[in-house]
Every structure is written in structure tokens, then in C-alpha cells.
Amino acid sequence: MTEPAFTPRVFSGIQPSGGLTLGNYLGALKRFVTMQDEGSHETVYCMVDLHAITVWQDPETLRRNTRELCAGFIASGVDPEKSILFNQSAVPEHAQLAWIFNCVARMGWMGRMTQWKDKAGKNAENASLGLFGYPALMAADILVYHATHVPVGEDQKQHLELTRDIAAKFNHDYKVDFFPITEPVIEGAATRVMSLRDGSKKMSKSDPSDASRINMTDDADAIARKIRKAKTDPEPLPDSAEGLADRPEARNLVNIYASLSEKTVDQVMAEVAGQQFGLFKPMLADLAVEKLAPISTEMARLMEDQAEIDKILARGAERAREITAPILAKAYEIVGMVGAEG
Ligand code: TYM
């Protein structure tokens, strides 16, 4: 058997640009914990504060959100001993490699990103340059670790394809085999959790309606109320997963149930076939409260000791730099920077 060229390493990040949602938890965090506990990869998880400031952030709120996100990672099961857990700005190699990638990536590639088009909208002239270059920083986040696997929700797929394009172009232009072609890990029943008010929209921290999402800081009452009020259609649940195809709200609730209960959608359908929402929603609410309320309680407890959170982040950044400093130095050498020759 040939040795793998790159150490199996997982990297992923979440923006501290508002509270964590159930979408972040099911689409990303829950899988971060599984990959950490499998133990077959080194796992590196990051609060991407430099990405957050591509749109305006109030400085005090950003600081608070970063610490709260750290509490959210830990309360969800990310163990700062097993995984490397830190905030992006504390590891300068991310931004340094991003500059090189700004020079590798093409304007056309960036302009095609649907997230850029959605976020900048018709007002692109007024969007920050950082928002346009966002995916180059994301590629740097991943590749400055030579990460091989990146667990994310469905909405990040295009950015990960761009990361592969950037790695391939760098390797090609400089005639090296230096950056790995990273594998996205987009798996499970809830890779795209939808709004509880509109099954055609992604559940998002930026939705003006708080009822559209479950926040990871919501208490048991709020979680149960939002699920009871979630939009549905008048039909009972179908007999099989195929029957959910044109029923986005029903499908979303079933997907959430499947993901929270660690079952497949087919297994859930076998249990709930033909059920009215009047029965299914309380079942889902109970399950969601059982799984999520302890996380919000633990987050609140961790937030009481911010010095401890800051210590964890500082230690994580130190460990991260042991990986990133030599990789960045090598990248500088490859592109021809004087002083970086090994
Ligand atoms: P962000 O902060 O928007 O979201 C963090 C993670 O949560 C996932 N997610 C969802 N999954 C399922 N359903 C949803 N409704 C939902 N909403 C969010 C996202 O897919 C993501 O995995 N650009 C990234 C952050 C980032 C990053 C990286 C990720 C920066 N650098 C390097 C991976 C690797 C972002 O804005 O995610």
C-alpha cells in the first residue's frame, strides 16, 4: 500500500457573526464532534472572525460572539484537548496565505460564487473587497493546514470546489505537489436545514424572523414553541421518503428528526408514516429539547468564565501555529520570497 501523501487532517470553521443555529449544529458542529471522536484524523476547528468582518460587526458584539461560539463548540462536544480550537485572527498565517491566494484566484472565479451574489446583491459596488475575496481566505484556512477533509453544510460546497481549484492552480503554476486537493464532507440527513417559517429558505442567523430558526441558546420552552408553530402543509406525513419530495416543510422537519435521533430518513418514515403533524410535532419538540437544551445550559455556564475561554483559545492558537508556520514558510519559499529559503 502506498503511504497517503498528506496526514489525514480535518479543518472547518464557523463565523462568529451572530448566534449559532440548529442549521450550524446539524450541518457542521455535530459532525465536527463525530470526526473528532473517530480519532482517525487530527481535527482543527476555528472561529473565523476575519471572515465575519467582511460585513460590518460591532467590535464588542464580535468579541462576545466569538467567545460564545467557542462555548458553543465545547458545549456541543468539541474537546479542546482532542481538537485544536482557536480564533482565526490569532493565527496570522491564515491571512498571509490568503494574500498569496488572492494572487492565484481569478476575478471571474470569485464573481461566480452564489454566496457573493446573494450577499452583495444589486449593491456590489458598495460591498467590501473582503466580501469578494472571502473564498480565497477560506481556501487559505483549509490549505494552511494541508487539511484533507472539510465537514460543512451544503451551502459551502461551491466554496470548497473553489478551494480545490486554487490548490490545483497553485500546484500547477509553481510545478509542485504542495497543496492537497481537499475532500468536502457533506453528509447526513441535515446538510441543509431550512427555515421553520418557509421551507424554501435556508435556516439562517440573519433571517429577521427569530421564529424561523432554533438558536443554540434557546431554552426548552422556546425550542418547543418554535417547533409547534413551524409551518407545515395540511396533509398527514406520507408513507415513504419519496412522498416528501414536493413538501419542503414536512421534509425539513423529518430531516431534523432523523439527524437529532441519529436515524436515516427511511427509518424515521417507517416510524411516522401517515401521522398527523399534531402528533409528529410534539415528538420532534421533545427530542429537540432533550438533545439541545443541555447544550444551551452548558453554553451559559461556560460563558460565566470568559478568562477560561480566552485561555482555551490562546492555547489552541499556539498549537495551530505549530502546523501553519512551517507550511506558510514553505509556500513563501515556493513563490520566491527572499528570506524564506529553507
Ligand atoms: P457559516 O458560519 O455560515 O456556517 C457554519 C457551518 O454551518 C453550516 N450551516 C448549515 N448547515 C445546514 N443547514 C443550514 N441551514 C446551515 N447554515 C449553516 C455551514 O455550511 C457551515 O459548515 N464560509 C463558512 C465559514 C468558513 C469555513 C472555512 C468553513 C470559513 N473558512 C473553512 C469550512 C472551512 C461560513 O460562512 O459558514
Describe the structure.
The structure is a single chain. This protein is mostly helical and 342 residues long. It contains 13 helices and five strands. It has helices spanning 22-38, 49-52, 59-76, 93-104, 107-111, 114-120, 129-143, 157-173, 220-228, 248-261, 265-272, 277-303, 306-335; strands at residues 9-14, 42-47, 84-87, 149-151, 183-185. Helix 1 links the parallel strand 1 (9-14) and strand 2 (42-47). The chain is globular and about 70 Å long. Tryptophanyl-5'AMP (TYM) binds at residues 11-15, 23-24, 27-28, 48, 51, 138, 141-142, 150, 152-153, 155-156, 159, 191-193, 202-203.
Provide key terms for this protein.
342 residues, mainly alpha, 3-stranded parallel β-sheet, two-stranded parallel ribbon, 13 helices, binds tryptophanyl-5'AMP
